[in-house]
């Protein structure tokens, strides 16, 4: 934030002289913890772990269906209905301490995950892990079709370092050694500085030094972005145009593509009259996603979900069933009213009465501090009033809210779904009967709305274990149909993997035209972006 | 947060002063409190806020939560204090929000005061083990920083309304008052009039309620006002940092929204300023009342109206300790002087 | 015996009060419990219709005696007898019953009335507690008239601060009379009052004694006033009684060296200009009550002190005048020495 | 008559200003002569302390001196009016020429400083040229004079008994050997034995150092014994002034008479104690005329209308006493100068 | 010496009670660190990842509250405060070591400065009543009635910014490495100016007021009049007689206010993104990070107790009456 100090001087003056990139995240003071496995580490929180530890395969987070880019593995092959994986490891890759990376290291990286549940974040059911020559073979106890990207993007750690650690789950790894192009130069709670290695198995990136600064909150981060002291970040900026873009319209850019995860209004499907799909569909028809996008999400943060299947586009374009290809969400109050009258609801003046004659009311709830969700709820509340549903927004206590959602004690709430390489994760999270628990019982890890559809459960099962793509497509189409017809949740927005960045000093960022990866600095693809950056004015 | 805690201990080491001005009936003396300009100003402002708290929701031009198409508009005839990112009317929010603030402030003040009386006065009066136990309790509560404690407690309560917040604040902020009251009770307990009442045969509870309590009124009142300040500040802070679960509007909620929407960065000062000023004015009003009480209790604190004195030869001298101003050093005697008779002159 | 023997109302025998001293770190090691020997072995008799004066310098334990007799403090040892019956009460109904018969007037009229209550409240409470309400209004007037606050209406609804010191003291007395006691313990009832007002209050007390036949303990440090108002005078020094007898005898013919010192020190307008301490007069300061001198407590200051004085506690020795006694070894063997010691 | 050191002339003190002002001291004229003890008596609230503080200009707000002069006669040099001094001159004047001993020694000594510090403070302020060791020596010497051994120099006030503190104050008052010492009820908090010790010491010191004392008390019997002359105050005025013997034997003002009759005597005949009926006047609502008239048994019409003047009584041939009373034979023939 | 034993018992008891409360209160909060992390990673954490976290944090095993309590005391006595969840697996002690200096430096120094300035102004205001200083009181009252965070935010908006001398956030320039270098210390001071200023503004009036009132009370004591009567210089009377005595009651108030440092610092650190202990607490509360919460509370409690102890000692030194012997 200051105009002096060596933080800025190197980047000031002619933009072509830039050697440093300032990356920011609004995550508060950090502690010196470079353990890449731990989400609580500074490396994960700020995203620099990806500059040190590299994946086997680089997969474009916004295009999960595209084949990945070979990275530390040059080849990979799935067998036996995705229960067996053979990897060919790249030669000539060296760790930052000069030791070569071998198949042993790769196998060890998997072993670690197998051995420690705490490190196996995706709960992959590892079977055997064998390394021979430059090959690593893995087996799994179940089909890993839905997890294939998660396995391929596993990062590799050096065995010679990690095998000496007493407890890898509780080590802060003060001296991280990886294959990536950067090493940690200095750490302070505010800023971690990474510096470029002399050698790297690919062309060395142009950025000599990365500075990851952790700001205490969104406000501080936004201010830093606006005044240029932070050049790349992922943060929610209200009124982004005025606050950020207009400060330097030429250089202040943002790109927030969707990934395959969504946000929506979860409805407790066990509560009358919301157990009636017609009511849920009608509600869906009046919700104004433009307002939510523009007012709640500041016009950029969580992109609109356009498809009525709830699958975010363009990331999920290829999954959308043919019959829903062009069906998009649109506000249709009359349609909603028709839907309701058909189902026996009556709109009396301003009040909607359910078939039994009771007025329809609903409490929308989210934690008080989640301002975007609360804003969304305010908008939804307004929207629902157009069909006579009296909604109240309850700003709950965060902990209580979690508990209530978990136990199904709510009418409706804005909540997210899981995300993944395919829309499977979304649907599984919403409708899986296998994780269905009665209202009042907690510990569910999805299906908060207690949506009970054996058909959906079956389709999900089929998809996960199918032997061929056709079965999978059919299963997914069934799920889409259920989603559209039953609306267990009303999708409003897609999850994002975006970023705000400045082209003042560096160019080559991903954007609408060049969608080589999501623009979020804490994603694995950040390494790709860094490798792609060039000093501004050098072209 | 820095609600000025009452300074009454410092002010009255010896309890209620022997009235400086005998002859003025006690009732009139009580009214004199209102005649104190500071207290009067404070009371008027407080009354104004109380009025708004009562009628605010009725006179609010809009529903404070209702959205409109005027997003982030600066103040105008239509929206006196401008609008929010959802087009809500900030003026209405401030008006409607007053009730929550006043309710929580007063209720928390009441709860804390009641607790501090209960604990402080009993500790001071009973003495012995009861005193040790109770004062240890209040010491512990004093040592635990109040705001973090309130934050933690507030976040444990599921869906707390104003009532809950008020109770939480009340239950965590009585310790200071209890300590002051204990000290005061200790000094009152050994007063002759308490002993005398005991010697007359009064029972213990009558001693506490009728002999000791009336003499604590000023301290209790000032403790109450102090806690109200603290409660208002705490409540607003809780809402501001998004911890409290208040679903209704209050000034803190307005500020929370302003802050989470980065109103200042957006240039929407109108979103931020009115609520903050309202808090400051309310806080000042309460502090003024407290000054009034302090001065009422300890007349020495009153700055006398005439601090400058004009001497005969036109100089103006300040009244101060140690150097008494001399108005005129050659004043003629006001009493008649018996003129000397001529014969005495001779004699 | 010139002391007329009327009925004994309240008597104390061997009355002792030790206040514990707050312990410090050092004391913990020494394992000794220090106490203030505020009152030691006092024998005192209050009779109907008589005023007994208790004189002694500040801090000699006079107030403590009064509070012990009023049962406001628990005693360390000794006996308090009301009409010959030992009483020990700490509170509750028994205490009320005792308070009804023995009332105390506090030293400081400015502090002993609650500033927040009116005269009416104070008196009403006193009447009500002891069930003497009857016709309340009439009784209130009677009380005020008894203490010569007339007309009563003028005073009933006043707050203490609206009254002068003498008036306040009268209200205190009225409050004590509200219980219709038999014994009145007046703890320096006039020391805080102005010279011109003192007399009124004392005259009032004397008048009450005569009219209501009260037994009064009059505590003061002004030995001259004891001469005027009390039938009997007891002299206290550092927690002990050192001399007693009829007031006139004690003041005009003091026996104990301390009493002599006290009387010699009192201002005397007739000794114009001869202000100086006689050579044979004791000086020094009162002793610490935590570790009082052994033997006679006065011996360190006493000009007649003998070896025995510092080791043995002198008992009461009767003196020639009936009822007059002194606790001083000077009078041990030969009571005739009285003359010599008293100069 | 001896030479005057302090002449108080037509002295007026008010508390407050304008119409609310309380006139606590009115038109007081009083002379303190070199080497004498002048007693000032009167009941509580009669303005004794106010007069004492007023003379030294130490009245706390809202007190103001609304008139009169206080002429000080230094032993060598010209007399000057204390009321006309500037603050700096006043500071120099204080303690070096006139020192003051207050009623409560505990409150007069700063509880947080050693008594030596407090004594040396004075010397430092007035005789800065003195070396530190000389200052200490002087303080020690003075304390010895009042009977406090040098090893108590470093004690804090609370470590001394009441009598010792009072003696420290007296020692401090004399440390600069002033001409005038004003003592405002210096012994009322002490018991009679201690009181006598201190007064005896004071008499001795006065003989040695030759200062004059203005001694304030309400204990008339003490004054009679101790002082050379006595002035009686009532309602802010001096009502009578005479040599102690004269006053004791034959007081002219009914109030003085009443006062003398209020003290029970310890020795001699049991006198009749008459006392003074009524209660002291309220300074805000002073009775018209002679302020004592409502309580005076001998009051007549004139008393309630005209304020009596202090002067040498006409009837009997008194030379150095004055009284303010309209009773026949006491009406002044001359104003006391 | 008088109340050393009593004080000691008080400190031991208070420490025990406060630490016990510290232990229990966080555990009364519904929810656990993992749900809070879910919140932090809103929508970006898969169900599987959540389960792995329970394992990682050791929350999958159920220990009784009592055994946890016993362990807790074991830890406290060993100076081991456990591992933070938010910054897993960083030991809480390390986090505190990292943030404590900032809080002490900023809030400690400003509280001290505020006390000193407020007290000095109060001395003058109380000594010269009716002068301009006295007239300033209502103004300072108003300033101190402004909610702290509001004042801070306003100050940031109005005074801080890219072109301004005042940085708007952080404890030092992001690029610098903490150390005893000139540029770092300069930067740290520069970053602390605005927060310090706002703390001063909102806290100084309290001290002015208490000190003024004490001065007024003390000024009418006899020994002040005596000091004037002794002809001492005005300064000497004001400082060595009046202020010295008036200060005494404020010493314990000051110690108590040190206790409120962390409570107040929370907002300062939030508003100014200051890397101190208050912000840690805020994070810990938000993340249900019991070990961190306990650690912060421990620090707060101990520092309050130490401050009180210091105040007791200071009192002992300043007021000879408490040193009474025998
Ligand atoms: N509650 C108490 N605790 C400890 N010591 C006490 C207590 N009350 C009195 N004392 C001590 O007992 C002694 C006698 O005190 P008491 O008040 O009886 O004296 P007194 O003769 O009435 O004095 P005075 O004339 O000043 O009223 C004193 O040394 C006093 O310090
Ligand atoms: N600050 C004040 N404001 C108004 N009146 C005052 C003030 N101070 C003193 N007085 C009044 O001035 C009168 C004289 O007071 P002063 O203290 O001189 O009396 P005193 O003769 O010294 O009495 P005492 O014997 O009790 O010391 C009293 O009636 C008192 O009420
Ligand atoms: Mg007593
Ligand atoms: Mg006086
Ligand atoms: Ni505050």
Automatic annotation (TrEMBL), chain B:
Gene3D superfamilies: MetI-like. Keywords: Cell membrane, Membrane, Transmembrane, Transmembrane helix, Transport. GO terms for molecular function: dipeptide transmembrane transporter activity. Residues 102-290 form the ABC transmembrane type-1 domain. The keyword Magnesium does not apply. The chain crosses the membrane at residues 39-60, 101-125, 137-157, 163-181, 216-243, 269-293. Residues 1-10 have a biased composition (Polar residues). It is a multi-pass membrane protein. It is found in: Cell membrane. Its main location: membrane. PROSITE patterns: ABC_TM1. The keyword Secreted does not apply. GO terms for cellular component: plasma membrane. Residues 1-23 are annotated as: Disordered. Belongs to the binding-protein-dependent transport system permease family. This is Peptide/nickel transport system permease protein. It comes from Kribbella pratensis.
Automatic annotation (TrEMBL), chain C:
SMART domains: AAA (SM00382). InterPro entries: AAA+_ATPase (IPR003593), ABC_transp_ATP-bind (IPR050319), ABC_transporter-like_ATP-bd (IPR003439), ABC_transporter-like_CS (IPR017871), Oligopep_ABC_C (IPR013563), P-loop_NTPase (IPR027417). Gene3D superfamilies: P-loop containing nucleotide triphosphate hydrolases (3.40.50.300). One of its GO terms (molecular function) is ATP binding. Residues 267-289 are annotated as: Disordered. It comes from the Bacteria. Pfam families: ABC_tran, oligo_HPY. One of its GO terms (biological process) is transmembrane transport. Keywords: ATP-binding, Nucleotide-binding, Transport. Residues 23-263 form the ABC transporter domain. PANTHER family: ABC TRANSPORTER, ATP-BINDING PROTEIN, TRANSPORT ATP-BINDING PROTEIN. This is Peptide/nickel transport system ATP-binding protein. It comes from Kribbella pratensis.
Automatic annotation (TrEMBL), chain D:
GO terms for molecular function: ATP binding; ATP hydrolysis activity. The keyword Ubl conjugation does not apply. Gene3D superfamilies: P-loop containing nucleotide triphosphate hydrolases (3.40.50.300). The keyword ATP-binding applies. InterPro entries: AAA+_ATPase (IPR003593), ABC_transporter-like_ATP-bd (IPR003439), ABC_transporter-like_CS (IPR017871), Oligopep_ABC_C (IPR013563), P-loop_NTPase (IPR027417). GO terms for biological process: peptide transport. It comes from the Bacteria. Residues 6-260 form the ABC transporter domain. Keywords: ATP-binding, Nucleotide-binding, Transport. Pfam families: ABC_tran, oligo_HPY. Belongs to the ABC transporter superfamily. This is Peptide/nickel transport system ATP-binding protein. It comes from Kribbella pratensis.
Automatic annotation (TrEMBL), chain E:
SUPFAM superfamilies: MetI-like (SSF161098). Residues 100-311 form the ABC transmembrane type-1 domain. Keywords: Membrane, Transmembrane, Transmembrane helix, Transport. It is a multi-pass membrane protein. GO terms for cellular component: plasma membrane. CDD domains: TM_PBP2. Pfam families: BPD_transp_1. PANTHER family: OLIGOPEPTIDE TRANSPORT SYSTEM PERMEASE PROTEIN. This is Peptide/nickel transport system permease protein. It comes from Kribbella pratensis.
């Amino acid at each position: 934030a200051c105009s002096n100090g060596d933080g800025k001087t190197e980047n000031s003056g002619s933009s072509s002289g830039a050697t440093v990139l300032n990356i920011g995240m609004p995550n508060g003071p950090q502690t010196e913890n470079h353990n890449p496995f731990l989400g609580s580490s500074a490396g994960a929180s700020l995203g620099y772990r990806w500059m040190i530890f590299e994946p086997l395969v680089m997969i474009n987070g916004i295009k999960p269906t595209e084949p990945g880019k070979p990275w530390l593995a040059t080849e990979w092959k799935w067998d036996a209905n995705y229960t067996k994986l053979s990897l060919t490891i790249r030669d000539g890759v060296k760790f930052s301490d000069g030791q070569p990376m071998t198949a042993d290291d790769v196998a060890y990286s998997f072993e670690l995950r197998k051995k420690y549940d705490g490190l196996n974040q995706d709960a992959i059911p590892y079977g055997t892990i064998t390394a021979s020559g430059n090959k690593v073979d893995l087996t799994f106890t179940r089909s890993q079709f839905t997890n294939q990207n998660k396995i391929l993007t596993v990062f590799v750690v050096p065995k010679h370092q990690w095998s000496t650690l007493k407890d890898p789950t509780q080590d802060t790894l003060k001296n991280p050694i990886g294959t990536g192009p950067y090493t940690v130069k200095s750490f302070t709670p505010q800023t971690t500085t990474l510096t470029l290695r002399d050698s790297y198995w690919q062309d060395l990136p142009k950025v000599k030094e990365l500075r990851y600064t952790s700001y205490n909150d969104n406000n501080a981060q936004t201010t830093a972005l606006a005044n240029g002291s932070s050049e790349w970040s992922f943060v929610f900026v209200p009124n982004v145009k005025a606050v950020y873009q207009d400060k330097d319209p030429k250089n202040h850019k943002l790109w927030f593509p969707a990934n395959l995860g969504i946000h929506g209004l979860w409805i407790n499907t066990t509560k009358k009259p919301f157990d009636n799909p017609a009511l849920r569909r009608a509600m869906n028809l009046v919700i104004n996603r433009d307002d939510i996008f523009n007012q709640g999400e500041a016009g950029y943060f969580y992109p609109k979900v356009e498809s009525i299947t709830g699958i975010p586009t363009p990331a999920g374009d290829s999954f959308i069933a043919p019959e829903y290809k062009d069906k998009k969400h649109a506000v249709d109050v009359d349609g909603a009213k028709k839907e309701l009258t058909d189902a026996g609801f009556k709109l009396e003046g301003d009040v909607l009465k359910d078939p039994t004659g009771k007025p329809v009311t609903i409490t929308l709830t989210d934690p008080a501090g989640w301002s975007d969700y609360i804003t969304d709820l305010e908008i939804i509340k307004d929207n629902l009033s157009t069909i006579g549903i009296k909604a109240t927004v309850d700003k709950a206590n965060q902990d209580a809210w979690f508990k209530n959602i978990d136990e199904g004690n709510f009418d409706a709430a804005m909540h997210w779904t899981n995300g993944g390489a395919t829309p499977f994760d979304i649907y599984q999270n919403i409708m899986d009967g296998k994780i269905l628990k009665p209202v009042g019982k907690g510990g569910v890890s999805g299906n908060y709305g207690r949506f009970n559809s054996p058909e959906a459960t079956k389709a999900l099962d089929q998809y996960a274990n199918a032997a061929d793509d056709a079965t999978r497509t059919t299963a997914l189409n069934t799920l889409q149909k259920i989603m559209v017809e039953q609306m267990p949740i009303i999708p409003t927005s897609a999850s994002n993997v975006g970023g705000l960045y400045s082209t003042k000093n560096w160019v080559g960022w991903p954007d609408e035209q060049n969608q080589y990866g999501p623009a979020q600095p804490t994603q694995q693809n950040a390494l790709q972006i860094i490798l792609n950056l060039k000093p501004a004015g050098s072209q | 947060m820095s609600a000025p805690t009452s300074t009454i201990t410092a002010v009255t080491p010896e309890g209620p002063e022997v009235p400086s001005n005998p002859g003025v009936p006690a009732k009139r003396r009580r009214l004199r409190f209102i005649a104190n300009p500071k207290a009067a100003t404070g009371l008027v402002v407080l009354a104004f806020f109380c009025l708004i708290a009562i009628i605010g929701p009725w006179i609010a031009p809009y529903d404070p939560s209702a959205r409109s198409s005027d997003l982030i508009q600066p103040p105008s005839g239509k929206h006196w204090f401008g609008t929010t990112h959802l087009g809500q009317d900030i003026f209405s929010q401030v008006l409607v929000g007053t009730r929550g603030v006043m309710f929580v402030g007063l209720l928390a003040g009441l709860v804390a005061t009641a607790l501090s009386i209960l604990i402080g006065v009993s500790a001071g009066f009973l003495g012995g083990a009861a005193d040790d136990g109770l004062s240890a309790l209040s010491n512990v509560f004093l040592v635990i920083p109040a705001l973090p404690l309130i934050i933690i407690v507030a976040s444990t309560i599921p869906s707390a309304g104003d009532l809950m917040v008020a109770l939480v604040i009340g239950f965590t902020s009585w310790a200071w008052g209890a300590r002051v009251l204990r000290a005061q009770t200790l000094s009152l307990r050994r007063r002759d009039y308490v002993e005398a009442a005991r010697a007359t045969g009064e029972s213990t509870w009558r001693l506490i309620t009728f002999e000791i309590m009336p003499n604590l009124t000023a301290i209790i009142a000032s403790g109450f006002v102090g806690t109200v300040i603290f409660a208002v500040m705490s409540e607003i802070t809780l809402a501001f940092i998004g911890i409290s679960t208040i679903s209704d509007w209050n000034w803190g909620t307005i500020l929370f929204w302003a802050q989470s929407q980065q109103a200042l960065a957006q240039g929407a000062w109108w979103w931020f300023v009115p609520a903050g000023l309202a808090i400051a004015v309310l806080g000042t009003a309460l502090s003024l009342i407290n000054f009034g009480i302090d001065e009422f209790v300890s007349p020495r604190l009153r700055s006398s109206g005439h601090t400058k004195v004009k001497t005969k030869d036109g100089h103006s001298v300040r009244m101060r300790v140690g150097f008494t101003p001399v108005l005129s050093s050659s004043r003629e005697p006001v009493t008649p002087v018996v003129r000397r008779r001529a014969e005495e002159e001779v004699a | 015996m010139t002391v007329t023997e009327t009925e004994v109302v309240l008597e104390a025998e061997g009355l002792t009060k030790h206040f514990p001293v707050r312990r410090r770190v050092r004391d913990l090691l020494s394992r000794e419990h220090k106490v203030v020997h505020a009152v030691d072995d006092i024998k005192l008799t209050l009779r109907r219709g008589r005023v007994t004066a208790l004189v002694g310098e500040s801090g000699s334990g006079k107030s403590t005696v009064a509070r012990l007799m009023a049962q406001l403090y628990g005693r360390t040892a000794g006996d308090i007898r009301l009409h010959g019956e030992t009483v020990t009460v700490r509170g509750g109904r028994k205490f009320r019953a005792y308070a009804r018969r023995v009332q105390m007037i506090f030293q400081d009229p400015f502090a002993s009335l609650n500033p927040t209550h009116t005269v009416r409240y104070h008196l009403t409470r006193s009447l009500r507690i002891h069930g003497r309400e009857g016709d309340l209004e009439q009784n209130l007037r009677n009380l005020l008239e008894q203490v010569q606050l007339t007309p009563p209406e003028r005073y009933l609804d006043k707050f203490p601060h609206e009254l002068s010191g003498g008036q306040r003291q009268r209200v205190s007395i009225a409050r004590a009379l509200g219980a219709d006691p038999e014994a009145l313990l007046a703890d320096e009832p006039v020391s805080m009052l102005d010279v011109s007002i003192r007399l009124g209050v004392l005259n009032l007390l004397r008048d009450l004694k005569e009219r209501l036949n009260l037994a009064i303990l009059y505590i003061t440090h002004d030995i001259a006033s004891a001469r005027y108002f009390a039938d009997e005078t007891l002299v206290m020094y550092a927690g002990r009684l050192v001399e007693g007898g009829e007031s006139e005898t004690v003041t005009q013919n003091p026996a104990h060296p301390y009493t002599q010192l006290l009387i010699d020190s009192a201002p005397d307008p007739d000794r114009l200009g001869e202000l100086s301490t006689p050579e044979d007069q004791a000086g020094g300061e009162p002793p610490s009550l935590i570790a009082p001198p052994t033997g006679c407590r006065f011996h360190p200051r006493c000009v007649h002190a003998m070896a025995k004085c510092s080791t043995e506690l002198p008992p009461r020795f009767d003196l020639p005048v009936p009822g007059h006694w002194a606790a001083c070894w000077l009078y041990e063997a030969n009571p005739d020495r009285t003359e010599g010691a008293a100069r | 008559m001896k030479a005057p050191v302090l002449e108080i002339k037509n002295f007026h003190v008010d508390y407050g200003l304008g119409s609310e002002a309380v006139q606590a001291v009115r038109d007081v004229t009083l002379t303190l002569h070199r080497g004498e003890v002048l007693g000032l008596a009167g009941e509580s609230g009669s303005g004794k302390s106010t007069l004492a503080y007023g003379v030294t200009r130490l009245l706390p707000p809202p007190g103001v001196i609304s008139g009169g002069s206080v002429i000080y006669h230094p032993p060598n040099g010209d007399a000057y009016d204390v009321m006309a001094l500037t603050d700096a001159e006043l500071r120099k004047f204080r303690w070096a020429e006139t020192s003051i001993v207050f009623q409560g020694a505990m409150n007069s000594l700063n509880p947080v400083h050693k008594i030596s510090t407090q004594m040396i403070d004075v010397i430092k302020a007035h005789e800065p040229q003195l070396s530190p060791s000389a200052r200490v020596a002087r303080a020690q010497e003075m304390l010895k004079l009042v009977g406090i051994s040098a090893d108590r120099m470093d004690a804090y006030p609370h470590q001394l008994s009441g009598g010792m503190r009072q003696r420290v104050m007296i020692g401090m008052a004399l440390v600069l050997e002033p001409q005038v010492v004003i003592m405002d009820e210096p012994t009322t908090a002490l018991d009679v034995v201690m009181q006598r010790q201190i007064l005896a010491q004071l008499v001795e010191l006065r003989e040695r150092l030759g200062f004059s004392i203005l001694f304030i008390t309400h204990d008339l019997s003490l004054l009679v014994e101790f002082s050379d002359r006595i002035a009686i105050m009532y309602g802010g005025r001096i009502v009578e002034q005479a040599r102690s013997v004269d006053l004791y034997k034959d007081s002219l003002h009914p109030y003085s008479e009443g006062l003398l009759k209020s003290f029970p005597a310890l020795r001699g005949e049991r006198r009749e104690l008459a006392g003074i009926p009524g209660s002291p006047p309220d300074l805000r609502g002073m009775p018209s005329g002679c302020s004592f008239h409502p309580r005076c048994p001998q009051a007549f019409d004139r008393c309630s209308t005209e304020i009596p003047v202090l002067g040498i009584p006409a009837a009997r041939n008194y030379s150095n006493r004055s009284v303010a009373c309209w009773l026949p034979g006491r009406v002044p023939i001359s104003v006391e100068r | 010496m008088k109340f050393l034993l009593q004080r000691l018992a008080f400190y031991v008891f208070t420490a025990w009670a406060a630490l016990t409360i510290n232990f229990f209160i966080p555990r009364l909060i519904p929810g656990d660190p993992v749900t809070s992390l879910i919140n932090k990673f809103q929508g970006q954490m898969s169900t599987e990842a959540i389960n792995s976290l329970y394992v990682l944090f050791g929350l999958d095993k159920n220990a009784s509250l009592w055994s946890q309590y016993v362990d807790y005391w074991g830890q406290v006595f060993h100076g081991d405060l456990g591992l933070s969840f938010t910054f897993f697996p960083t030991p809480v002690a390390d986090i505190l070591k990292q943030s404590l200096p900032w809080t002490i430096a900023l809030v400690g120094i400003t509280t001290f400065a505020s006390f000193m300035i407020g007290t000095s102004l109060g001395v003058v205001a109380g000594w010269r009543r009716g002068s301009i200083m006295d007239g300033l009181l209502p103004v300072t009252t108003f300033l101190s009635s402004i909610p702290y965070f509001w004042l801070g935010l306003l100050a940031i908006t109005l005074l801080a910014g890219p072109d301004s001398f005042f940085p708007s956030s952080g404890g030092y320039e992001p690029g610098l490495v903490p150390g005893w270098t000139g540029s770092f210390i300069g930067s740290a001071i520069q970053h602390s100016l605005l927060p310090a200023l706002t703390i001063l503004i909102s806290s100084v009036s309290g001290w002015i007021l208490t000190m003024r009132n004490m001065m007024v009370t003390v000024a009418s004591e006899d020994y002040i009049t005596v000091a004037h009567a002794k002809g001492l210089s005005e300064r000497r009377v004001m400082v060595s007689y009046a202020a010295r005595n008036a200060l005494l009651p404020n010493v314990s108030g000051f110690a108590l206010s040190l206790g409120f440092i962390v409570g107040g610092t929370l907002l300062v650190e939030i508003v100014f993104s200051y890397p101190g202990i208050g912000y840690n607490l805020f994070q810990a509360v938000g993340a249900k990070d019991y070990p961190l919460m306990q650690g912060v509370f421990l620090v707060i409690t101990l520092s309050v107790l130490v401050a009180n102890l210091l105040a007791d000692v200071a009192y002992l030194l300043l007021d000879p009456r408490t040193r009474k012997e025998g």
